[in-house]
Amino acid sequence: MSKPELPGWRWGPFTFRLPFYHTRLYWPEALQGLFVAAATGLSLVPLMTMFFGLSFEEAVALSMLHSILIGSALIFFGEPYAPGWITPALPLVLAFVLGSYEDPVLRFQAMTAISLNFALLLFILGVSGLGKKFVLWLPDTLKAGIILGAAIAALKRVFIDDAERFLLQQPIITTLACAVCLIFAFSLPMARLKEKYHLVALIGAMGLLPGFLLAALVGPLVGEVSYEIEWGILIPPVGDLWLKVSPFAIGWPSAEMFIKSIPLALITYVILFGDIVTGNEVIREGIATRKDEHIDISPNRTHLSLAIRNGLMGLFAPFFPTQGALWTGVHVIIVQRWKQGRRAMDSLHSGLVSYYLMGIPILFVLLPLLTGLRPLLGVALSLTLVLTGFACAYIAMAIPRNNTSRGAVVLIGVGLALFEPWVGLLFGIVTTLLLVGWDRNPDPIPHED
To answer: 62: buried, middle or exposed (CB in 10 Å: 19+, 13-18, 0-12)?
Structure first.
């Protein structure tokens, strides 16, 4: 018989677990979290400074607020998943926001509109329990087309839209970082080496970090990086940021913005639901080994916590879609160690909180760390988008069951990547109906209770 779930302070459907009191600190997870957060948590900074009118310090403050909201999933809401961005939606969101609006104020208002639409959708689907029915109702070809559209939009942003700003400024180290990460994450020959050598498996488990560190070392040697380290503590300028981003300061989105961003909220929900299913399956696999700890999986709680986080983000730090349910790679790493038994990790919640705790207070105030990372943030952004594009492409192409469906998926993907969200979604629905039919899978979620 399993013991009760790790205790905490209950509030409504949620559980608040105070770090160091309810949860233990595990240094391996804490140090990994610090360095991986450094490699990925700030990767949106170049976009914020280049397209949204923020200074470097203000962009760091916005990233800090995002990270605090991400960490709140574990500490304030008691979620059992390693939270992260809804990364496949990012290129579609950028294509819409940057393509539709020229002014930074309008772009932040559009981000607010998407965030609040998404929060409302999550709240309605969570409270009513209709979320699962909605995803079951969608045809497989349309779902695959949505995911492939994210892949095309991500790669288009790296190699075409923003190539002169990022890739062509640092071509050697960007290519090197992407190649190393793709090989360690997806290469079949490398997978065999991981099984054979523990060190290779350990490097592979670090996600984006190996490629990022290699770029940091090679950059100065090839003349693509020049470090200007500043010492001291940065007090993130949250007040100045508020005046540039919050709808309370810059004005609320127009009704047109809310209407135009509805398709993006629906598309993002389809991607998010897949993340929740993945997270549940990883936990269920772990529970088979760790029968001594009960883990409460509650789809309604997850929907409500995500609704609150996205609503708060839309009001105070609008930059969609950073508030998702799952960072798959991190989730798998932590659950793997939890499966080794109580001596390795007493509670899954302790491991999750340890991973996310260190990056929040330390990462965003240490000037040497921030200024050291600054010339590498374009690489981090390109790396994030390339890996997203590759992963979305292979997931999307695994879904179709015949050649007509595969061709339709490519058409839908191109339509979503190139057209406005409403047009792309309508094009995807019509293409699915005319070429394949409403080919929904009656049971796409294995082992769902």
So the answer is: buried
